[in-house]
Design a protein that fits this description.
Elements lengths: L4 H10 L2 H4 L7 H8 L8 E3 L5 E6 L2 E6 L5 E3 L3 E2 L4 E2 H15 L7 E3 L7 E7 L4 H8 L1 H6 L2 E7 L8 H11 L3 H9 L13 H10 L7 E4 L4 E3 L4 H15 L1
Helix pairs in contact: 7-8
Length: 243
Amino acid sequence: MNRLFLPALLVLASVSVSAAEPAAKSDPRAVIAAKFPELRIEDVRPSKIPGIYEIRVGADSAYVSADGKYVITGDMYEIDTRINITEQARMQERRAVLAKLDERDMIIFGPASAPQHTITVFTDVDCGYCRKLHSEIDQLTKLGVRVRYMAYPRSGPDSPDWRKMEAVWCSNDRKSAITRAKRGEDVKAPSCTTPVAKQFELGEQLGVRGTPAIFTTNGDYIGGYLPPGKLKQELDELRAAAK
């Protein structure tokens, strides 16, 4: 949970309290949505607890009482099964977002034959563990793992890191360029329109807090670096658990 999420949420609610008063009392979703200007009514969903509604802002979730007076942040668990209900909702959203991405905007390394797994990795050319993962990319692909790279320069816009990643995405041979950049080599390319800003924003939306950030096609957020063998094992176990 983003530690800034609750304060930001309360600010959003406070600036729109007056707008919430005339909301349709027959529909609690309208009452709640009226208090948070970034929300649409369809973004407010009933939770597993009667009288409590779930709202989502980016990668963060919160729960709000039907009268819109109380907000709870944190993950909801089902006690008997120990299932994280909130994480299940996040996975569903991540799965939908990842499925819609245009692979032409990515840098992809894959096995010669049909892959066993595909992962989407938000990466940074100056990140030590990103470089380590990339140095083992051949081992990963031999294990049947297809890697789809997305740009996530941690230093943010207008930083040297950002400009390096734009140069990579502007290169005629992106795969060679990202390999050279992750070796610390200087990559030069004519300026162009890149998806770097869009991918960085998407990473923020999905809750990326560091790199490499690894996601499965099912919406699992594995997190950071794992050695090739352990990563393949984790992917196998996640797939088996999803069946």
